[in-house]
Amino acid sequence: MKNLLKKIKKLSSDYHYEIIAIRRHLHQYPELSNEEYKTSEFIVSKLIEYGIPFEKGIFKTGVVGLIKGKNPDSKVIALRADMDALPVKEINDVEYKSRNTGVMHACGHDVHMASLLGTAKILNEIKNDFEGSVKLIFQPAEELIPGGAKFMIEEGVLKNPNVDKIMGQHVFPELEVGKIGMKTGKYMASTDEINITVKGKGGHAAMPHLIIDPIYIASQIVISLQQIVSRNAPFTIPTVLSFGRFIADGTYNVIPDEVILKGTFRTFDEKWRAEALQKIAKIAKSIAQSAGGECDVKISHGYPYLVNDENVTEKSFQHAIEYLGKENVVELEIRMTGEDFSYFSQIVPGCFYRLGTANSTKGIGSNLHKPDYNVDEDCLKTGMGIMAWIALNQLRD
Question: Average pLDDT, stretch 265-280?
Answer without folding.
Answer: 97
